[in-house]
Write a structure and sequence with these properties.
The protein is built from 12 helices and 15 strands. The chain is of the alpha/beta class and 394 residues long. Helix 1 packs across helix 10. Bound molecules: valine (VAL).
């Protein structure tokens, strides 16, 4: 379905791409707005992330246009991908062929990216992934980059933090969602790190992202007396698994991966979320002026503290907008043929250094993010059992 900011709604306006139909060259046509595609999971399982990402996009659009960073101004063209591959493919096709976007922020899941990104790659449309953390995303193609640090860089920090909290840890039960590309990638990194740290993996239990009942996997695992549980899944399945581990009386530490790094987890595992460790690529507590200004703007617009997914989506928009700004110094963005602008935008964004809420970032030549600062949060639930926060460790 087409969201309110998108192409169809704008047909009556002068938004290029929409009003100028598909397929034709835009050479010589001038644009009154620079359309940036946003393809996020706004419905389905993964909407727990997609909605947080959308918040970052809203704040980015408001701020960057207020700062007049580009001429003409940017326009976010938003498409709901749902939570599966087909939805992501559709959204990409619509954004590229109907809205004629300059670049795409999305999709939410790595599982979706492996299907949808090749479409943008073939069309020569730059994609900046705001939340894909599986190994192998930037390698999909020359036009694919990401601001979401991969599992290989982020996940090991959680295991080191757990060992710091309890150096006696020995026996680990690993769980993962086998139908999800990110979860498979993350569990591989977790398992490698556990072994490298001298821990024993006593069992590896598999589930699906659509599962809500993990009684049999949990019982199987608890029979082996683990003192650490490590989970790679998405928020809905992961949250149910965490809750059932506690219901079946598991008392040890739990590490969750990138999939549980959202406050939308809290209503799923409620009080049982308390104490879960999560490595994070963003902290709202980062004292840098750039982050604190972002945080204030975010809180003023949305009355909530920005999460990792929101900050990463904002950062993806920032990368695109600052690159357009740089290009605009020597080019007329309103009249440059779209194919050429997409190509130049991709080259430009890979070259830049960006001062973002995530810290200073830049890209490897193939588009993976280079980021310095990571965090480990521990979930602290409030006595109401519904709300809580990620408290920074160390
Ligand atoms: N980071 C995950 C992925 O790449 C989810 C949690 C968005 O699929």
């Amino acid at each position: 379905t087409v969201q309110h900011l998108s192409c169809l709604v704008l047909l009556g306006t002068t938004l290029w791409g929409c009003s100028q139909s598909q397929g034709t060259s835009s050479a010589g046509n001038s644009a009154s707005e620079l359309p940036i595609g946003v393809a996020l999971a706004l419905t389905g399982n993964a909407s727990l992330y997609g909605q947080e990402s959308l918040n970052g996009i809203k704040v980015a659009e408001t701020r960057f246009n207020a700062q007049k960073l580009t001429t003409p101004p940017i326009r976010m063209v938003i498409q709901d991908t749902g939570s599966d591959e087909a939805g992501a493919v559709n959204a990409f096709q619509t954004l590229i062929n109907q809205a004629n976007v300059l670049g795409i922020i999305g999709p939410t899941l790595s599982q979706q990216a492996f299907s949808a990104d090749p479409i943008a790659e073939r069309a020569g449309v730059p994609v900046v992934a705001p939340s894909n953390t599986a190994v192998g995303i930037p390698e999909i193609g020359l036009f694919i980059s990401r601001v979401s640090a991969p599992v290989s860089v982020v996940a090991p920090a959680a295991i080191k933090a757990a060992l710091k909290l309890n150096p006696q840890l020995k026996r680990v039960a690993v769980f993962y969602a086998q139908d999800d590309a990110f979860s498979r990638s993350e569990t591989e990194i977790f398992q490698k790190t556990l072994k490298a740290q001298g821990l024993e993996i006593v069992t590896v239990q598999k589930g699906q992202t659509t599962d809500t009942d993990f009684q049999s996997q949990v019982s199987n695992a608890l029979r082996l007396n683990p003192d650490l549980v490590v989970i790679s899944g998405l928020a809905a399945d992961g949250g149910n698994l965490i809750r059932q581990l506690r219901e079946l009386n598991y008392k040890g530490l739990i590490i969750g991966g990138n999939g549980v790094n959202t406050v939308n987890l809290f209503p799923v595992c409620r009080a049982a979320c308390d104490g879960v460790l999560v490595a994070q690529a963003y902290s709202p507590e980062n004292p840098s002026p750039t982050n604190q200004t972002f945080r204030q703007a975010f809180e003023a617009q949305l009355q909530q503290v920005p999460s990792q997914f929101s900050a990463q989506a904002y950062t993806a928009a920032q990368v695109l907008v600052e690159s357009l700004n740089a290009l605009g110094k020597t080019n007329d963005l309103a009249t440059m043929p779209r194919g050429e602008l997409r190509q130049k935008l991709n080259q430009q964004l890979l070259q830049g250094t960006y001062d973002t809420p995530l810290g200073e970032i830049k890209f490897t030549p193939n588009g993976d993010v280079i980021q310095r600062q990571f965090y480990v949060g521990q979930i602290q639930m409030n006595p109401d059992g519904n709300s809580g926060k990620f408290a920074l460790l160390q």
